[in-house]
Q: What sequence folds into this?
């Protein structure tokens, strides 16, 4: 990272653009080392982008503001259910119209949950949020209006951009007869040869049933936007207030930071992103039921943030990638993959307790602890004398 | 009076930490609360900054009742505290710490802000040397300077200092106290809490002695420093 920072600005920019292009092209290239045999690679990548989104949102709550949230799946569910209700179950809205409502509903849910609970600190907050996640799921299970156990199907897909029969551009639901404005052929990796496979193509911006790559592109675009917003907010007054609150709540309050309001803001921002991910997920699946929102997911989301290094946006993205991707990549291990995943988590907790990529600050805090220890043991006598 | 505390009572559970304390801090002075451990000095200061709720009594700042205001609202009015044990943001650099001190200011991009930063760095030249170092890597004395400088960056009218000499080497204590005097001469009213009674009394205009949650003696710094009973109890004979 340091070497990267030293590069001149245009080079850096080119590097990021190249990286983004590579990310967009990944499912088309489908290199065998990272491809997922037995599961649709585009689908896996889409799920990865959802985890990335969730990890970025949860990172604001856990990593920036230091609030342990064990019920993040609840926000994900609120977003998904709002989109589902509005586009299929009780109304017939297009997805794009329902998105703002889904996100607003989730943000409000975040405020309602946060307003009473953020007054408690630490462990209590974890318990309360854990309960919240479960309550949301149980409400969905037991409410007929929300489709109870059977769930909700036929959730609207994003609008496709297609070539109509008369050659003009049509925007709307994907239809079997219509093609995209252009086709992108995939690469075919044979034994030692790489071919462009014109038989296997992705219709550009057609959100159909089988080809998941357009959803991945949509997800990736949203991730990039959220990443930009995350960068701006972290370097603003708000970001500094979060950091101060996390480090020392009383001291932050003494500096004039209304800590409660800023914690609530972190909670609402996190909920906003979680709801967005939920709505996109529901749209892609076209079907949701309460089993999509088990407590297990809250834990996996938190694992993504902690594994990657809470507080570091690049770290949590890596964490999200690993948590969403590894189990799919190693499907060959069958049921053992859960065991392997668990073992990997334990190993990580022992070897890198701050996560794979801890933020600069955590590294510095560690250094400081060590240096202070040396200082204190070295100057004990002087300090004692000074106290008299 | 810039600050008036009247009939203050504070409880920790069933234990009375402070019983009916009243005192004032006149504008432009250094006023000191001295007393032994557990006498209620820090608790008193916390009720002034708002970290601690009161059971009874009022706190008035510049004539305005602030008893029920949150700490961050009091900062806006012009009260800032350098808390006990420094409480720097250890992960942030010295500059970021000072910047946090100016959190409530809206003029952070103006010359006035840079002037104040210069003023703090002139008071504490050591901080200039360490400006980009994380506060956690500094020594105790330097962290004390960060905590005081941070509090000053909000341009407080009333600066609350909680045991600035705690855990410091004697030479550094001298230095910190002369800086307190300097800050006061530049126009900031100071309410100081100290265990180092000798130094504190020498530098304060007014002083109050706390014992088990109540004020037992009040007077000018010089008066109390010359008082035989005070000498015996807090100054340990020949200091």
A:
């Amino acid at each position: 990272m340091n070497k990267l920072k030293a590069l001149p600005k245009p080079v850096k920019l080119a590097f990021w653009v190249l990286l983004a292009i590579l990310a967009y092209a990944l499912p088309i290239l489908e290199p065998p080392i990272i491809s997922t045999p037995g599961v649709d690679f585009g689908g896996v990548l889409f799920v990865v982008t959802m985890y990335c989104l969730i990890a970025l949102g949860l990172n604001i709550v856990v990593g920036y503001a230091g609030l342990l949230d064990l019920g993040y799946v609840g926000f994900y569910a609120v977003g998904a259910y709002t989109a589902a209700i509005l586009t299929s179950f009780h109304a017939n809205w297009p997805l794009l119209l329902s998105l703002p409502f889904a996100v607003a509903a989730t943000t409000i849910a975040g405020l309602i949950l946060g307003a009473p609970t953020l007054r408690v600190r630490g462990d209590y907050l974890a318990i309360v949020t854990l309960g919240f996640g479960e309550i949301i799921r149980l409400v969905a299970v037991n409410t007929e209006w929300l489709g109870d156990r059977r769930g909700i199907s036929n959730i609207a897909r994003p609008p496709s951009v297609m070539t109509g029969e008369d050659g003009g551009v049509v925007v709307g639901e994907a239809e079997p007869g219509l093609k995209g404005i252009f086709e992108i052929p995939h690469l075919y990796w044979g034994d030692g040869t790489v071919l462009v496979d014109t038989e296997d193509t992705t219709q550009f911006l057609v959100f159909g049933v089988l080809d998941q790559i357009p959803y991945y592109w949509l997800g990736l675009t949203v991730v990039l936007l959220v990443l930009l917003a995350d960068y701006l907010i972290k370097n603003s007054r708000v970001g500094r207030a979060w950091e101060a609150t996390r480090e020392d709540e009383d001291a932050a309050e003494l500096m004039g930071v209304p800590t409660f309001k800023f914690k609530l803001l972190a909670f609402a921002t996190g909920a906003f992103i979680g709801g967005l991910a939920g709505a996109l997920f529901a749209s892609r699946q076209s079907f949701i039921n309460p089993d999509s929102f088990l407590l297990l997911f809250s834990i996996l989301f938190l694992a993504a943030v902690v594994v990657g290094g809470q507080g570091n946006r690049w770290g949590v993205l890596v964490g999200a990638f690993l948590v969403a991707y590894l189990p799919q990549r190693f499907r060959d291990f069958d049921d053992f993959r859960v065991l392997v995943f668990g073992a990997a988590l334990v190993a990580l907790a022992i070897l890198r307790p701050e996560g794979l990529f801890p933020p600069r600050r955590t590294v510095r805090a560690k250094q400081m602890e060590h240096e202070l220890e040396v200082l204190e043991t070295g100057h004990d006598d002087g300090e004692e004398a000074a106290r008299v | 009076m810039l600050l008036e505390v009247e009939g203050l009572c504070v409880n920790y559970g069933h234990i009375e930490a402070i019983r009916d304390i009243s005192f004032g801090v006149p504008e432009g002075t250094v006023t000191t609360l001295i007393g032994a451990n557990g006498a209620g000095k820090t608790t008193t200061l916390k009720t002034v900054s708002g970290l601690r709720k009161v059971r009874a009594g009022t706190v008035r700042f510049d004539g305005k009742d602030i008893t029920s205001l949150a700490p961050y609202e009091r900062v806006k009015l012009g009260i800032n505290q350098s808390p006990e044990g420094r409480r720097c943001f250890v992960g942030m650099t010295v500059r970021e710490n000072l910047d946090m001190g100016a959190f409530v200011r809206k003029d952070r991009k103006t010359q006035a802000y840079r002037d104040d930063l210069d003023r703090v760095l002139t008071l504490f030249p050591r901080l200039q040397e360490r400006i980009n170092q994380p506060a956690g890597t500094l020594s105790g004395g330097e962290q004390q300077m960060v905590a005081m400088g941070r509090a000053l960056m909000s341009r407080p009218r009333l600066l609350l200092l909680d045991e600035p000499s705690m855990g410091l080497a004697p030479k550094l204590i001298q230095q910190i106290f002369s800086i307190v005097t300097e800050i006061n001469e530049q126009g900031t009213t100071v309410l100081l809490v100290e265990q180092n009674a000798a130094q504190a009394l020498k530098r304060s205009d007014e002083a109050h002695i706390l014992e088990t949650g109540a004020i037992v003696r009040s007077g000018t710094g010089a008066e109390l420093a010359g008082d035989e009973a005070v000498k015996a109890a807090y100054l340990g004979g020949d200091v």
In short: Chain B has two domains: 1-78+156-239, 87-154. Chain B has ten helices and ten strands. The radius of gyration of chain B is 17 Å.
